[in-house]
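Box S2. Input/output pair 1.
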Amino acid sequence: MNAITLGSNGPTIAPLGIGAWAWGDKLFWSYGKDYDKATLYDAFKTALDVGISLFDTAEIYGFGESERLLGEFMQQTDRSRSSVHIATKYFPLPWRFNAQAVADALTASLKRLQLPTVALYQVHQPFDFLMGQTTLLNALADEVKQGRTLTLGVSNYSAEQMRQAHRILADRGIALAVNQVPYSLLTRQIESNGVLDTARELGITILAYSPLSQGLLTGKYTADNYTPPIGARRLNPQFSQSSLEKLAPTIRLLTEIGETHGKTPAQVALNWLIAQGNVIPIPGAKNGDQVRQNAGALGWSLSPDEREQLDRSTATSR
């Protein structure tokens, strides 16, 4: 599977990354209980060992703890920091109403990460408030010019919002590198709402978060062994028992296809996403074993017929 270059001046990376939302997060996830700093460091090192270099974090993940952990891990590893590509995010809070707020937020993120620059800096949500998109995106463009981020991206932007962001940045001679959105076999709305088509038209990479639908596509959660969800999964109606019953045929298909290739349902689901072209799934991983499992999505391809079967099986998710 071909590597993907972010933007016009960004790094060239494998078409798979690591989502670090759960790293250090006690509010939505169980950091400090069933996983800790040591298991996350194992995930970090394992990712680099298997050729995964992109780690996606944000200033609000764990109230900055996700960034701090990544900064610490980069200092501890014997790898060159240039082999690690960090993507982080600016959250447009209502009281951030001028360009200086963007600069201050990135300064704080870089301090936690212990880096002079990041590979990708993204707007976490398409909120305007008092700043407005023009001021926000020009402030981000300034950070590229100053070398504090190599590329720029957005997250959760609609097709029209992407076009606006692309247009504003293009006036500064900067490409919009990514739009980070939910995308999986069970969440395919970007195929019908114009986001995927617009990204392809404008050369924007899709960073697919929740590419395994918070674990639903692993086959771990079924109606037969149903237990009420905890943590962030409590907010997801797809974890209800009735939804899991409807999901069963898709899990059976993923399992059958996986057996043909010696792969797990999750690896098949991630491979299907990568096969869409210019899409980088960023599944979460809390330990080295989960990273190795995710990496099993690389280095092989589904057949056209298998992709078509999966398309038909989950067509209602568009």
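Box S3. Input/output pair 2.
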Amino acid sequence: MTLFLRSVGVTGAILFGFLFAITFVATDTLERSAKSFIQGQIEKEVREKFQQSKASSLREKAETLAKSLSMEEQQILEDLKNELPDKIASIIASMCGYDCEKKKRLSQSITSGFRNRISSLESAQGRLENIIKEKYIDITEALRADLRIFLGTNLAAFLAVLLISLVKPRAHIQLAVPGILIIISTIISSAIYLVGQDWFYTILYNDYMGTGYIAYISVIFGFLMDITLNRAQITTHILNGVSDALGSAFQVTPC
């Protein structure tokens, strides 16, 4: 049992230590693996900020808006190229009896209005692009921080199991309790990550570290502290209670 726990501690420490290091040295890999999740979060936050979006995805919304803005801008540029302001001014002048000088000023005014509209459209496109970039950076940084907490916490737990198995070799039965709990959490999180990465990131990002997982890890560290500082008395009592409930004669003594 002692050898098994030490093997678990070493294996877990290497695995989570490696993954923890990746979050610092291979940030592009992390962003690529979480790309669809990040896009979904951007869509969610932009919708919440503006309280308006009927598009099925942010990409569709952005492309539709950009396309409509682009089409309007191109149309205005084409109209300017075809001297449409002059044509409009001529029609108005013929209806109102404007002279040539007034017609010229009117043409300049209309042209200026068209160019201001183009500037306004370009500004709108720029604001949308800046919002998306800002949300991308914020979400990516928050996700990276949560992932580091998740991996770092697991790394610390496996290192603790390894260290206590060396310091308290006689407590191998009690140490099996937190060891098994850590193995279960590793298997579940790894399965979620490998089978469905989006689910993994969703669980992680939606305050996963702030609620359930912190409580779960706290239980594990509670057992570890009991074994280290309290001669495993609480853990021993729990194990003996379970043994009695199952009708077993198996008993463990504090160490």
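Caption for Box S3: Residues 100-167 form the longest helix (68 residues). The chain has a mean pLDDT of 75.
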